[in-house]
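Appendix B. Extra example for self-study. Work through it before the problem class; the solution is given directly after the inputs so you can check yourself.
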Amino acid sequence: MYSYEQLHTFAKKIFIAIGHTEELAASAADVLISADIRGVDSHGIARLKGYVRLWEVDRINAKPNIQIVHETPSTATIDADAALGLVAGPRAMQVAIDKAKQVGTGWVSVKNSNHYGIAGFHSMMALEEDMIGISLTNASPLVAPTFGKERMLGTNPISVAIPTLNETPFIADMATTTAANGKLEVLQRKKEDAPLGWIQDGDGTPTSNAHGVKEGGALLPLGGDREHASHKGYILGSIVDIFSAVLSGANYGPWVPPFVSFIDPVADPVGEGLGHFFGAMRVDAFRPKEEFLQHMDQWVARFRQTTPIDPNVPVQIPGDYERGMEAERLKNGIPVLDAVIADLNELGEKFGVKL
Amino acid sequence: MYSYEQLHTFAKKIFIAIGHTEELAASAADVLISADIRGVDSHGIARLKGYVRLWEVDRINAKPNIQIVHETPSTATIDADAALGLVAGPRAMQVAIDKAKQVGTGWVSVKNSNHYGIAGFHSMMALEEDMIGISLTNASPLVAPTFGKERMLGTNPISVAIPTLNETPFIADMATTTAANGKLEVLQRKKEDAPLGWIQDGDGTPTSNAHGVKEGGALLPLGGDREHASHKGYILGSIVDIFSAVLSGANYGPWVPPFVSFIDPVADPVGEGLGHFFGAMRVDAFRPKEEFLQHMDQWVARFRQTTPIDPNVPVQIPGDYERGMEAERLKNGIPVLDAVIADLNELGEKFGVKL
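Solution. Structure tokens for the complete assembly:
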């Protein structure tokens, strides 16, 4: 078990070791370790080695000149200059928040970026400003559109964070596939099969092989099959792709650069890096703040009271799982897999940092 | 078979007969019959009688004073004054477009409205302005959240329309449930079963009974069951509900007034009428217009070329189905069910209008 501080300090020192300023390294560590503390282990410290490897092959710029390249009063397009997405994300979300302070809402599309950790970190930045936060990103192609067998989209998540007065805030953070990659990794480690509807094999046939994606198959869009409306998951992933990359000038669809350093980006990119999209809406741009927050409290309270199918399994509010994990891990610490600890020790030796 | 003009003229005359001005009646008919021409029969002329019945029980105001009650440079909240949603929708979308012309994007939440036809009509208004259009609405509660057996959400659709240069535009219009109500009506008429994953019965058990919702059950959120991430459909429907109603001051969740006139709205409403949410984003608020449109063309062309599973079933672009229906129906006419024709004749006799 590790504390939040232990993992944060280690990650920050590694980011400094590869050339980041203390400020940028701290910001990147904030995003990265927020995944571990919230129970999204696939997006946290386990990925630190992956980010370092991208830096080693010159795909991460530790001294980025992140700048607005196009703007209106309510919008901006940002060139992240090949920064860590962990660095570019909070910067861009702050621009959205600042625009919202001025004109009610702010919308920022980002190009030339890299993976940005959990989508929910960025959307949640809006909560303390009494704004609704929105965070989208495209990602390495792993998902086949309905009727297709080619990997065309990433797991392209949607996160929306909505403030409340006294109730827990509404914090949605969901991949637009049936199952996120992290869930498959869990099954792979346990040597278990995946439910049908999560994966298809290289021929486009549904498979329960949890290694199906690595073996030439694809993840399936939310819905799972045509009969259960997988075209809607395909639509959602496409909207995320277009807002993140066609608006900004990043790569989209099958051109999105892979997260892994051992696969080179495509030779004929249609844009720069990968893309994100952020939004911030002041709730008092629509109605008086107290009114909105009180009704959000009532919304949350009423949905918690939904008559349950099983009296012991209440209906949840988006964010409940992560909130529960955070409370538990702040108290008892964060478990880290042996394989991840080995990676971290290797990184530590290379850069002279001790975990 | 009926022509677009025949149905449009009839609907317009009926809307005039119940007290609308010629302008408002024409606008409402535009929205209503756009559903028939695009093949979304459940949302078109078949609903005309339902709208009239709502007017008969004083739930529709044919002389509405639709006005902005709160605004910032990029946002507005509109009180639709109990107008037809068919009237309030285009008005509110136009406000979003006008705001976008000024500050890059426009976002409008609407309260005190009624059903607004197909979501896609409103989002598509943005296309001719080279804007991305967004249209959301909440609706009568028919959907149970994951783990719940109570109907808490409507089919709460999401529509996003994205312009292109020469390719067909990207037009998504999807309920956040596995199956829209219209699909169930088709099965009911054919006396066929529904696939598991569409409906649960009154105990919360999955059922293939296509009449399950009418018999006390509920529609299931996109995903269908927990293993296939129905919580994501629940999340999406919730976001639509909150943006449409908690932002605007409309009713949300189980308080949303029913479409049918024979069920009274709840006695303790939390807001006024039902709610919509519209967005318009100028593409040149993010990058030069030609660049965006050319890359959208490339996006559409590349996704059409996705390697298909079956060489005879190509991957589609959102909107293809409706475009195909529109071309076919403009040429050959719109089929109308006998039961619907009987309703229309009844309406015609009542108001002295001939189909």
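Self-check: Residues 85-103 of chain A form the longest helix (19 residues). If your reasoning did not lead you there, revisit section 3.
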